[in-house]
Specification:
Distance between the termini: 29 Å
Strand content: 15-25%
Number of strands: 8
Largest sheet: 8 strands, parallel, barrel
CATH class: Alpha Beta
Order of helices and strands: HEHEHEHEHHEHHEHHEHE
Number of helices: 11
Radius of gyration: 17 Å
CATH architecture: Alpha-Beta Barrel
Oligomer: single chain
Shape: globular
Number of domains: 1
Length: about 240
């Protein structure tokens, strides 16, 4: 299943990739219904930052998505839980997002626990892991995962946006956007040049990332805003389900 389409490579090439949010306890039929509403979708998204986290539900969603050959994006509970990334990956997601990333230390810890040795330090194990059936040797799976899994770091403050050059590093595939918390921070810093608008912040981030291996992701929510953000330099999008 996992080898059918490598989302990481598509993202790195700068191809437009679009995700759609599903309920954190979505059934296979719900996933099929939501994902089937648009041929442009490339992955589904489950959020634990602002939802209850039941790991049994997460495993069920991931296994259902694996049956459908759909990668699962999972936003973890809190920035300080980067040490737990490997454990959550053992439950079956293909993509991890770390919210409210601010520091180089958080970025490096995320990389360390996302990737297997010798690039990272993730522990080996986890029966529901994506792609395990096709890559069941220890070294074989480590090589597969390190070339397959996708790591997002979410920036949600002016300081984080200014820190993007220090956050990006080998292994960080995507810088993602947190518009709501960023709005709070812009309101708290009205004299900063980037406080003028969310679009000004997006444009700044896109320029900083230009020419790097790390791409920009926007939660556009509304599919009607795809062209706007693609035109601003985002290549990864995340939307709410179509009605």
């Amino acid at each position: 299943m996992a080898g059918e389409e490598n989302l990481k490579e598509r993202i790195r090439r700068g191809e437009t990739t679009i995700g759609v949010a599903v309920p954190y306890n979505a059934t296979k039929s719900q996933i099929e219904d939501i994902y089937g509403k648009d041929d442009a979708y490339n992955y589904i998204s489950v959020d634990s930052q602002h939802n209850p986290l039941n790991e049994t539900d997460l495993v069920a969603v991931c296994l259902a998505a694996q049956d459908l050959s759909i990668p699962v994006h999972f936003r973890i509970k809190h920035t300080n839980y980067t040490w737990q990334i490997g454990n959550w990956l053992d439950l079956g997601p293909s993509i991890i997002e770390v919210p409210q990333t601010e520091t180089e230390a958080t970025a490096q810890e995320a990389v360390d626990y996302f990737y297997y040795r010798q690039f990272g330090k993730r522990s080996a194990g986890g029966a529901p892991r994506v792609g395990l059936a096709e890559n069941n040797g220890r070294l074989e799976y480590a090589e597969f995962w390190n070339n397959y899994g996708v790591l997002f770091l979410q920036v949600e403050s002016i300081q984080a946006i200014c820190n993007i050059p220090r956050l990006i590093r080998p292994g960080v595939d995507v810088i993602s956007w947190g518009p709501a918390d960023l709005t709070f921070d812009r309101e708290a810093n009205p004299n900063h040049p980037l406080s003028v608008s969310d679009d000004a912040c997006v444009e700044y981030a896109a320029k900083v990332l230009e020419g790097t291996d790390t791409k920009l992701m926007i939660r556009n929510y509304d599919w009607n805003l795809r062209d706007k953000y693609i035109g601003m330099g985002a290549t990864v999008l995340l939307e709410s389900p179509k009605p």
